[in-house]
Each structure stands twice: as structure tokens, then as C-alpha cells.
# Entry
Amino acid sequence: MAGNPVYGKGYHDGSTDTRQQDLLIAGVLVAGAALVKVGMVNYGKLKQKQAARLEKRMLASAEEVDIAASDESNLEDPTPETQ
# Structure
């Protein structure tokens, strides 16, 4: 299977040329890399959405704690305005 000196080393009894095989392999690799890149971008967007939701929840709970703390301080130490 030494191949044909005119058509290349992969040409033997109707087999495809190695250049075609190399192009096919390169195309598959590029398509795979594109899928990985799209997956990474989507994963990053998902993580940003989750972080935004968590931050929103944390801010809401901090506001509730502040409101509860101010209500407790009003009960313990009434100001002259409330007497």
C-alpha cells in the first residue's frame, strides 16, 4: 500500500486521498471546537443569571433584617415622638 506517486500516499484501489481525509478531520475538529465554545458561553451566561438571582435574594433578605432590626429598636427604646 505504498500509494500512487501522482495522487498521493493514500490513493490505492479507490481509497480517498489523504488530503480529503485531513480536511474531513479538520472540519470535525473545528465543529467540535465551535460546540465547546458555544457551550462555554452558554454556561457563563447561566452562571451570571444564577449569581444575579442570588444577589437579589441576599439584598432582599438584608432589607428584611434591617426592617426587623429597626422595628425591634423602636419597641425597646421609644422615641419622644411615639410617647
Remarks:
- The chain has a mean pLDDT of 78.
- Helices lie at 18-76.
